Amino acid sequence: MTAALSMSGISKAFPGVRALDNVDFDCLPGEVHAICGENGAGKSTLMKILGGSYRPDAGTIQLAGTTVHFTHPRQAAEAGISIIHQELSLLPHRTVAENIFMGREIARRGLLDKAAMRRKAAQLLGRIGAEIDPQALVSSLSIAMQQLVEIAKALLLDARIIVMDEPTAALDERGSRTLLTLVQNLRREGVSIVYISHRMPEVMAIADRITILKDGKKVWTRPRDAAPVGEIVRAMVGRDLDDFYPAPPSSPPGAALLAVQDGTNAAVQDVAFTVRAGEIVGVAGLEDSGKGALAQALVGDAPFSSGTITLRGKPVTLRAPRQATAAGIGYLPGDRKREGLALHQSVRDNALLTLRSMAGLLARPQGGAFASNVIDGKLREMDVRAADFGQEIGTLSGGNQQKAIIVRWLAQASDILVFVEPTRGIDIAAKAAIYETMRSFADSGRGIVVVSSDMPELIGVADRILVMHRGRISGELPRGASEEDIMHLALGLADQPHREVHA
Amino acid sequence: QDFNDPAEFKKQREQLSMKPQGPEGQPWAQHLGDGMVDTAKYKKDGQVTICFSNAGVFNPWRVVGLNNLNAEAELHKDRLKELIVVDAEGKDDKQISDIEALVSGGKCDALIVSPNTTAALTPAVEAACGKLPVIVFDRGVNTQCPVTYIHPVGGYGFGITSGEFIASKLQKGANVLALRIMPGVDVLETRYSAAKNIFDEAGIKVVGSEFTGSDRAKTKSIVEDYINRGEKIDAVWMDAGDTATAALEAFEDAGLPYPVISGEDQQDFLRKWQSEKLTAIGPSYPTYQWRTAIIAALDVLDGKQVPGPEWVLPQPAITEDVLAKYVDERMPPLHYSLCGCQELPGYPERWGGKK
Amino acid sequence: MTTVPLPSSRRAAGIALNAGLVIFVVLYAAIALLQPNYLEPGLFMNFLRRAAPLLILACGQLYVILTGGFDLSMGAVATLVVLAASILINGDPDATWAVIGTLYVMGIAVGLVNGLVVAFLKVPSIITTLGTMLLVNGLALAWSGGAARGDLPDNFRNLGRLVWRGVPVIGTLPLAVVVIAGFVALAWWGLNGTVYGKRALAVGDNPRAAELAGTPVAVTRILAFVVSAVSAVTAGILLGGFSGVSVNAGEGLELQAIAACVIGGAQLLGGRGSIWSAVFGALSLFALFTLLNILGLPQALRDSIQGLILIAAVGASMWRSRKRN
Amino acid sequence: MTTDAAKPGPARSGLPISILLAGLSIGFFVVVALATGEVSQLSGQGIVGLLQRMVALGLVSIGQTFVILVGSIDLSVAALISAVAVLASHIMQGDPAMILPAILICLGLCLAVGLVNGALVAYGGINPLIATLGTGLIIQGVLAASFGVLQGAVAREFQVIAYGGLLGVPYSLLLLAVLSLAAGFVLDRTLFGARIYAVGGNPDGARLAGIRTERVTLSAHVVASLFAGASGLYLAARLQSGTPWIGRDGIYDLESIAVTVIGGTILAGGKGGVAGTLAGVLLFASLDAGFNMLGVDAFLKQVLRGAIVIAAVAVHAIRTKEHVA
Ligand SMILES: Nc1ncnc2c1ncn2[C@@H]1O[C@H](COP(=O)(O)OP(=O)(O)OP(=O)(O)O)[C@@H](O)[C@H]1O
Ligand SMILES: Nc1ncnc2c1ncn2[C@@H]1O[C@H](COP(=O)(O)OP(=O)(O)OP(=O)(O)O)[C@@H](O)[C@H]1O
Ligand SMILES: [Mg+2]
Ligand SMILES: [Mg+2]
Among A7, A45, A431, which is best to mutate for testing ligand 1, by the most ligand atoms less than 8 A from CB? Predict the structure, then answer.
């Protein structure tokens, strides 16, 4: 069987970085080929070359045996390649249908056929099991729903090759399962699928073959059966990662640090919980369950309209992130690029942002705690890898960016950190490092609220898990809970007998 | 348009020395030449409403003028029910709409227009002429339909007065720097072409002709640049005097003697002239013509004969001998002395002066 | 991923600095070539004196540009300052200092309005300051009746006019040059000597991220507009001093100030730039004006050349940064 | 991308702004007319006069809407309007036989300017503010320099556009109406329109979706220039002969941007439309007419207009949760 896609000898350098070095990659018809690798290994770059966004410095691409040269994404699309990119690329002010048909509108002599597009959009959304009105504005959708729109967009083309670059990063368990079913169906139709994910269980569940990239080079390609998880991780990271999740704390939690009573706003109702010193409290929930809104309320970004928050026994009002910061609550937002990073500023400046923002206006920007060597020490401690901490943070890989933001809050010496999707799109080694940091932060007598749609992550790292459903806390689970337990509460089945929870 | 019309040059030169007709000492009510038009058909009894479509108040000359016009209107409270002033902010298009709205509004008994641009306003004025008596002043329109067109002698006259004065003070081969406001405006272009003709004839070299946009800082910088070039500047000729003192300051700052200069009738220039004993002249484009517009409109509605179809006003220049008469310490720096407004109600406060 | 050393941001800033400086040096060399006496310290000082208003405006504009905005109202503020000074002082030298204080208060008020409207009413700064430009200009003209009123005494005029002669080494020293030095030093200190500069860059780069990191975004923006207005007042005082009262003293200066910052390498919409972008950008632009004057080209064509240079300067820096990526 | 909206809402939310704004404008006009006793302004002729005030600004603003929607901006329209008006009168020299050639040459010039603007922005990567400021300066300079030789007047027959009419409705209004409808149709119903919204809303996303974003940006600039050309031709017809200053004096650059934004098109691009823009133009026209009836002093008018621009944008901007700069 000729490969549907075969890339050989692909190399690509960016200033200062050799992103790909002589990489070979192929994919057969009706095959799911997963690519794994650390952040910055070159996965997305390889796919962007396939999609015509970048031109390779060297190497050739063949589709079903014919060599192609793409200079614009349009050509790749016309050649039957469809890509779900890692970054969302939607139009916030336009409807779902208009987004799905972006660049491929149904038109006759330049005139749009809107009705046809609406129909087709509804059909596509139905196919992926998304209950989204094609007439809705994208800006009114949650990130997860937007991701589903992206997927529908990719299916529009009837492509022979579909690339999915971390399609489930923003999806919850239910959304991910629907997607995996969809992938199976596509495979059955003979579509070739390139699947990129940092979630090992997914990869193991659907991949036919797995390719590992490391530092821009291919390590190996193997059938799934010949690639146990341990091997994969070793190939990616270059060492064994045995104790992936940190050990639970040895001593019981201390006094209550943070307590919320009757917290209510447009998105959440009557939430109440406490976080004690030394505790990591997880918050689980499906999309639109209000877990994100809870985090925003805790940091004053979308405050509670009623209810009380007490910090170390004292009631506080948090109406803006700055107030929360001053009160000792730090925030690691879920959307790194949009909410976390000043992309064109240096790693150092990003790490110092909060400290400098909370200092007196006339403080010297390089003085005392802001001195380069002090913050460099902290960055190094957190193992942020950059050639020079003076370089723009936008040039770092996601994991290193995330670590730099964590350093921002560690430097600020907050009491409570609210982490939203702390490891979204982050490779396995960096994940382990972040978990380690979270644990030791809690162990030093402080508290963490971690909001995540990654259930294994919550199970592994949280001391307690609050599960949300429709804006309310539908239950609380101690350490050791299973995914089934969480799903049960997340689906709002708490009052019903524990049965089948697969949606 | 031809900005160098020998016939017009000659005509204006003659007008400059012509003896005006009309009441002595009231140049705004005087006129040159004999043409009169009959206006009996416009006669209207009782109180009247006069409408005025103004091009704008985008320079001090027009500000002083508008004050003149308003003050003149106050003199006629008994006859004048209302004076409606509409400002076009320097936009031709808006002025056309303004005129159309005034005419269709039906309130106006007579219309005064100070056109922003000659050609542009012609159709609108033509349309208005059919409905009511129209009086145009300052810039004209390309039609004979207005009852009369009020204006002083004109641009050539201005250039002749200033050019001849400078030529008379300089030797052949001397250098003059010409400072102009901006290109493309007929009344300004003709000032320059007239002066240039005279300089060429007298063998005086125009070392440069620069546009200042009536910006003082720019003017001063330009003159400094000429001084820094090491060029000797014997005289400065200007097509408008707003920036005359700025030009003189450039010489002061460089420690050079003042040049011979032609400015205009603004107070700051006159004061400087007086205190520094300059060799200077202040030709004018008198703002009293704004008074004439109201006078003419009322005369027309009275059915009186008025000078026309062109009402040419005298265009005096301020010279050494009459300088003292025009300096008025109470007035703001850019007040135009030939406003003919000293006797008008509200002088000097209405014009920004101190009591 | 083999990491090759990246150009550090400090080096990147150095490149930006050199861009403005290089353009300035080239243009000034051209001036000197045509008119060698411009190399004398006296004429150079005079050049600086005349460039002073633009240079100061550019420094203020830079603050706003760094935070991602524009300030179109500075020219109008400068005009207001000139007219107001003349009306309020009205020739009385004793009133000068008190009036200057008042002028700064007025300027700060305009800056605050700009900042508050942008930060809280969420009106884009280009529209907000277009509005305040009209508003301030209208107020200034309404107040003065549309023409200059009052008078400026010598002690006020000296701020823009006074030149000390017989100064060692440089020969002459205009007071305006001392004002520039002081203002630039202050502006530099604001961006590099306090944490404000880093906050402004972060806000210009990604306001949402800055907000979530605890940065007082609104205050940072408002301060930028206030600094910009203060620079406009300072420039207005120098303008009034240099050349006296007029109703169009500040006309068009806002766009020149923006152009200066951009020529100097600051990035519109925020996040990149240093005080040297403003300083050397303004000097370059002013050198260009002077050069065109000296060349004696028809005035009109000077506009065209200015347009060409503007596009070329920005195009060149675009091209350089593309090549780097 | 925002996540502020609560429920997946309906798509068409652009309409209310335009209707609200139009309603307010008309209301203002009517109330003022009644209050000042100028009832005749409410007659057919009065209304036509009001609408006629929209034509010149309306035409440029439609074009401006296209570029702003695509995420760019055009500051060169004012200079281009002057250029077209001057060129049209020069070519025609009053000769009706030259009407068609003149129109074609003028539109050719606009096409060229649009292509240059578009190329600088889309392919050169130059910030559109700077690029179009530059081209505007270039055009303005060339125009002023050559005005001496570029004089003339349009043909009488050509002036019919501005002064003739059908059943009491001036042709110029019909022209504006037809072109507005056409522009609205293009934006809403055609491939080109969809691409404009895509490129403005998310340029990277649009590129990844296979859209040749550069071409779309370039085309939008061409559209803007052509509409500026239409405005210039209309002005030439109305004014009989163009001067190099009509565009600048009309402040068509900043005003067209202001009305577009007032009409709800966001400066970042990707949201808005022609209906809102026209409502913004109507607001300006009503203000002009209303202030005339009220006899508002010229300078006060400017103050009010500044405040109204800010307020009109604030009304809908204040609801945005995103940061603006
Ligand atoms: N446009 C670019 N300019 C400069 N460097 C880039 C660019 N795009 C990617 N890189 C660099 O190339 C390397 C590979 O990046 P790539 O995005 O392909 O990684 P990835 O494997 O997809 O990582 P992740 O798992 O975080 O998505 C990284 O070091 C990245 O910083
Ligand atoms: N200000 C608001 N007013 C009304 N509804 C809101 C508001 N903010 C959020 N919501 C709604 O509340 C629900 C909870 O949203 P939230 O972002 O917290 O979900 P989530 O659990 O974080 O989902 P995801 O994992 O996809 O981010 C959503 O339906 C959202 O649309
Ligand atoms: Mg990637
Ligand atoms: Mg959320």
Answer: A45
